[in-house]
Here is the input.
Amino acid sequence: MSVQHHATLNLASLLKLDPELGAEVSGEGKFTPSTELLEADGLRVAAPLHWELTVRATGGDDYILTGSVSGPAVQECRRCLTEVETPVRSSLIYPMLYRPRRGGEVLTLLEDDEDDTLVFSQPEVDFAPLLTQVFAIESPLTVLCKEDCRGLSLDGVNLNDHPEHAPPAQPGRSTPSPFASLKDIEL
Ligand SMILES: [Zn+2]
Here is the structure.
């Protein structure tokens, strides 16, 4: 099975000289961000991402994009480096402008103090780069495989699987045990 790297909508029907107000184009599907996109956002995914998008004409050259992207992000537990899947869902809404142009990026994001506006230059728009970015922003910065993950021993053994590898308590070591302070509590 071939891998789908694109999330493309053809907006030609919206770009008639006088688009009817409220006219819209929708689509949905699954895509796997290309290696390039994943690396740009420091992202990994466990399965293709589901996307759905609608572009609606709001008069003149103005459009509005709404939709969502969802799927499993993969990250390493920050203590034991085990891979953890996190379900991520992000919705998006952007004003869009049509500025026909040949060559260059078809879809660009104009960042502004007020609103970020998407500018598209051709009727056929691949939203995969935008969707990947929106998905990456919604992904957690760091993850734990479980709340009480025991992490790795100094020689790299996963202490969740091999608790016997934990260094024996060494009296007199400079690192206090997490329970050391209990000794001071008067019962
Ligand atoms: Zn862990």
User: Anything to note?
Assistant: DSSP finds two helices and eight strands in the chain. Residues 8 and 126 are 4 Å apart (CA to CA). The chain has one domain: 8-138. The two ends are 66 Å apart (CA to CA).
